Amino acid sequence: MKPKLSHKPRKRFGQNFLQDPFIIQKILEVVAPQPADKMVEIGPGLGALTKPLLSTIDHLDVIELDRDLASQLQVTWGHTHKLTIHTADALQFDFKTLMKSNTNTQKLRVIGNLPYNISTPLMFHLFKFCDLIEDMHFMLQKEVVERLIAKPNNKQYGRLSIMAQYYCLPQYLFTVEGEAFHPMPKVQSAFVRLTPHQPLPFPAHNLKILQTITRDAFNQRRKTLSNALKAHLKIEDFEQLGINPKLRPEVLSLSDFVQMSNYIHQHYPNKEI
């Protein structure tokens, strides 16, 4: 039975509101919020997670693009000092601003039921702030979570896998069926934890190079490395790297891509990327 909503879900914002109390409880159990946590919720919607979080933690920041939903949150919880509402686009939000009043260097814990249409660019935006983040817990399309955790020689493995694993340890926590949301999406969802590496296991000397070669490598997955990356590396470069140029990109590990990136940075310092 659908809940009686005071807000009509908007397709342009990719709104699918979480409504299953069992899933909400399961989320709270795996996230395990503590009173002093510096927690940020992206896309609180109708407050399915906001309400139980506020009953547990001392303060919660929420980022909501939909002004009508932000107004409803203000009416419901605006009277309490425990909630700060940021009416903003999370894709443009500067998460450093949430640290200004944080005098004990405590890191952010980020949580959200993310709209499918912005989930990948939003994660790339959040990766820029990984040094400020303790962990991230997201509800995403199942296929996206499978790409996040994918390893080499897997059809789901690609640029998102490499860049997510460069910054974080991703963990698939559990699957969520469409019935848990209103309106019901046509695809399955999954809940994932992303824990930023401290320190990075394979540091890149130039992130732009790493991002570019992973993009170019997977633009046409069936191409060999020598073809896909011919704008960046010569056959003799692959020999120096000890990487077979006839291999396809999906067999290479994160460390292989970082190795290629650092080689380009060292041997072609003036190359435009």
Notable features of this structure?
Rossmann fold, 2 domains, single chain, alpha/beta, two-stranded antiparallel sheet, 10 helices, Helicase, Ruva Protein, domain 3, 273 residues, seven-stranded mixed sheet, 9 strands
What's the topology here?
Layout: E1 17-18, H1 21-31, E2 38-42, H2 50-54, E3 60-63, H3 67-77, E4 83-86, E5 108-113, H4 119-127, E6 133-141, H5 142-149, H6 159-167, E7 168-176, E8 181-182, E9 189-196, H7 207-219, H8 225-228, H9 235-241, H10 254-267
Parallel strand pairs: 2-3, 2-5, 3-4, 5-6
Antiparallel strand pairs: 1-8, 6-9, 7-9
Helix pairs in contact: 4-6, 7-10
Tell me what you see in this structure.
It is a single chain. This protein has 10 helices and 9 strands. The chain has 273 residues and is of the alpha/beta class. It has 2 domains: 17-196, 3-Layer(aba) Sandwich (Rossmann fold), CATH 3.40.50; 207-267, rRNA adenine dimethylase, C-terminal domain (Helicase, Ruva Protein, domain 3). Helix 4 (119-127) runs parallel beside helix 6 (159-167) and helix 7 (207-219) crosses helix 10. It is elongated. Mean pLDDT is 91; it is low at 1-5 and 9-14.
